[in-house]
């Protein structure tokens, strides 16, 4: 396929509830959708970065500039045999993988649509017809509010509950959650909020039978996680610090964690995500699919990714309605009472876009033609 046009759509959508992590609170999402087209067929991707450079170095405004000045010019007018080659065009740019990955993912969707097959099939997925789902619950204003939210999600059927933690909202809060829910699959995500000087404190988490603790230490730290993992019974799951397949290889060699969360954007798109998946599989390390409060497009890409065989743990891919009053796809992503998402056979990412709604929430627009 040839990349004849690239259209960038900046959309703004308020979240149903604020979402708070150790690095801050989000009320409304600013997202960039990337549309690549060839012969009148469009493929869509989503840049999954946050509004501010607090999860990693990327942020929406920066992504917009980078796309227009560097990423789109690097691919416009070029022809590819396969979307797996697209990443090479931007490989000279350092970091900014969510931004580069938004375009890369759009090309995979385009290739799947041109071939008339579902995206999950194109990437070699389809290991399971239903993917197991968990939810990520942010830091709340009170423990009572958190317990209420967990009740709602457990009742909806979600298979695993992840709660965000930070210093001051950790051991005692988890104790309350465990008292109320002694047997649910429970895990905690710290988003890099601790350091090795907190080892004794983090060891207290071992009494709660957590499935894992996600990214307790710095966003770019592998070696310290190895030291922490050696001191903890609770498995460590790495998120932020795994940005390439090479990082995954290093982390597993050093025993820096026992589980890896794969985020499509964080590693720069499908080609690298598949490599991370394969390395973990070879090492016998289970993976699950992380989320970044995506719109329907990013959500649908995550669902395709999660059909690869080693995505054996429930991921952070959940129903559209948990985040949006209305999504840009129609029908939405829905979750069964069993806490699963059922994949379909429609070409590409598999959910029809609601273009009228998309346009109504679009605040910026840029078109590039070869
Ligand atoms: O660390 O997994 C994370 C949201 C924003 C930034 C980082 C993370 C998250 C989540 C939400 O946990 C996952 C979701 O999209 O449901
Ligand atoms: Mg995380």
UniProtKB/TrEMBL annotation:
Root EC class: lyase
Every Mandelate racemase/muconate lactonizing enzyme C-terminal domain range: 143-235
A Pfam family that the UniProt record links to this protein: MR_MLE_C
Residues forming coiled coils: none
Required co-factors: a divalent metal cation
Keyword line: Lyase, Magnesium, Metal-binding
GO MF terms held by the record: metal ion binding; O-succinylbenzoate synthase activity; racemase and epimerase activity
EC number(s) on file: 4.2.1.113
GO biological process: menaquinone biosynthetic process
Family matches, as PANTHER family: O-SUCCINYLBENZOATE SYNTHASE, O-SUCCINYLBENZOATE SYNTHASE-RELATED
UniProt protein name: o-succinylbenzoate synthase
Organism: Paludibaculum fermentans
Lineage: Bacteria, Pseudomonadati, Acidobacteriota, Terriglobia, Bryobacterales
Gene that encodes it: menC
